[in-house]
Amino acid sequence: MTENGLVSVESRFGVAETVDRLVETVTGAGLRVFARIDHAAGAREIGAVLRPTELLIFGHPKGGTPLMQDRQLAGIDLPIKALAWEDEQGKVWLSYNSPHWLAERHGLGDASRDAVAAIAAGMQKVVAAAAGVDQS
Q1: CA-CA distance, 15 to 86, in Å (whole number)?
Q2: Would you say residue 1 has pLDDT above 90?
Q3: Is the pLDDT of residue 136 over 70?
Q4: Average of per-residue pLDDT across 75-87
C-alpha cells in the first residue's frame, strides 16, 4: 500500500520483532544502523499511551551521497527511515518513504536516477524480508 509517498507493508510479526528482523537484514546487506527509537517507550516516560511504534534509521553513504550531490537538501530525508507500528486493529505495518517520492520531492534528476532506483529496489527487499512477506 502506498499513500502520500509512504509505502506500508503488513508484517507477520510484532513491532519489536519486525524491527529486530530489519536490523538483521540491513546489517547483513552491509548497511549501517544509526538509531533505533522506541516511540511507545517515550510516550510511557510522560505517562501517555501509544501503541507499539519503533523507528529505525539506517543507510550507507554509497546510496545517499548521489542524492545529496544532485540536490543537497535531499539530506533532510537521509539516512533512510522505516517505522514499524501497530494499528487500531492490532495489525503491524512497516512503513517508509518511497525513494521515488523523495526524488520527486527534491527535484532529483538524471545524476541520481540510478541511486534512487537502487534504493527503491533495496528497500523493497529488506522490508519484505523483515515483514516476512513473499517477494514473488
Answers
A1: 7
A2: no
A3: no
A4: 97
d(Cα 13, Cα 22) in Å, to the nearest integer? 11
Q: Which residue carries 494499528 as its cell? A: 87
Output the nine-digit C-alpha cell for 40.
511507545
Can you tell me the distance from the alpha carbon of 88 to that of 66, in angstroms, rounded to the nearest whole number? Answer: 38
How far apart CA 94 and CA 19 sit, in angstroms, is: 9
Cβ–Cβ contacts within 10 Å for residue 101, how many?
A: 17
Query: Over 90: is that where the pLDDT of 90 sits?
Result: yes
The DSSP letter of residue 72 is G
Predicted TM-score (pTM) of the model is 0.94
C-alpha to C-alpha distance for 15 and 51, rounded to whole angstroms: 10
